[in-house]
Amino acid sequence: MSRVRVHNFGVSLDGFATGEGQTMESPFGHADGRLMKWFFGTRTLRAMQGESDGSHGVDEAFASQFGPGIGAEIMGRNKFGPQRGPWEDHDWNGWWGDNPPFHTPVFVLTHHPRPSVEMEGGTTFHFVDAPIEDVLKQAREAAGGLDVRIGGGPSTVRAYLAADLIDHLHVVISPIILGRGVRLWDGLEGLEERFDIESVTSPSGVTHMTFTRRT
Amino acid sequence: MSRVRVHNFGVSLDGFATGEGQTMESPFGHADGRLMKWFFGTRTLRAMQGESDGSHGVDEAFASQFGPGIGAEIMGRNKFGPQRGPWEDHDWNGWWGDNPPFHTPVFVLTHHPRPSVEMEGGTTFHFVDAPIEDVLKQAREAAGGLDVRIGGGPSTVRAYLAADLIDHLHVVISPIILGRGVRLWDGLEGLEERFDIESVTSPSGVTHMTFTRRT
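ok -> structure tokens follow
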């Protein structure tokens, strides 16, 4: 059975998974790169940038789980871009350049559908206006038996957690207090009862936590 | 120079340091004992209960820092008890029995002063209605050169953190989502810039974090 997975999902100590004030230049708003700093030096991230160097430690062990076994991703519109309302710029297709690091179909949740966009390297963005359960069905079909990754942002991950549709959640707690932004954990009281949880700290200062859904 | 320290301060993954609905039977409200579960089996806690067994591991290494070098504690009224407004019951003196585990003067922040209460074992509760800076001065004098512990609850720790009066903060993150209660981190955006922070996970599932104020 294909699983639904979340990977490399950065959260601040006060529970924010993105900051306030998202713009084209600042996908994470005032959080800037701080929630993903642990990721920047890893071999996995460096490979996405076309480089062959990078770290081999605890952070890389988790970072490298991102791709293998994944056949489709679902992301919220705010992960795709900072535009709101009807699409005004069809030429801008995400923060990732011509060859995004997904290499699978990607379903973007939006109330404003538009034609699919095929990028280099196997990524195709589909824009869908449907309940999250239905989008998951579409993504599973597109994944052809492989797993589906819920890519974020926080509102999207939270919605799938609330609906009990996530099998594996990997969050990375950074020791920073963001103070404002979008919280991951709101409305999820008692979430721990549905998961086996492990934690491990990294020399980079973050704590990796894995939530594995009890069967 | 005497330091101002916080020890064994439990926080949920979503940032709550106590639950909702404090009563005489439930000092932590709906959180019950969940934020302090890691502490229950330690040698330090067992010694407070008059027993000589208990664990010797990571949790105990941190738990044992609670007492040594401390000459006075400051606590918020809600840590002392669930009464609100004017004191109606002078016979009830906290959740800790006749011999509380503080063994020093304890300053209780309240807008309703009352006579001091001397307990067994060296603990004397003083009830003070004054700005937190002034209470700290009183506590430092009472501590006679030793350190002052800020005992909680979250509103009290947060107020002293906001005033930049804490030198050493030990928090213990439990992998639970409380959903409601009193948050520790609110209003503390950028706190990490003032501290050196270390994290270590324990086999009990919690993550111990120490914040050491930069000099």
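The helical segments of chain A are 37-40, 43-48, 58-63, 77-80, 132-143, 154-162.
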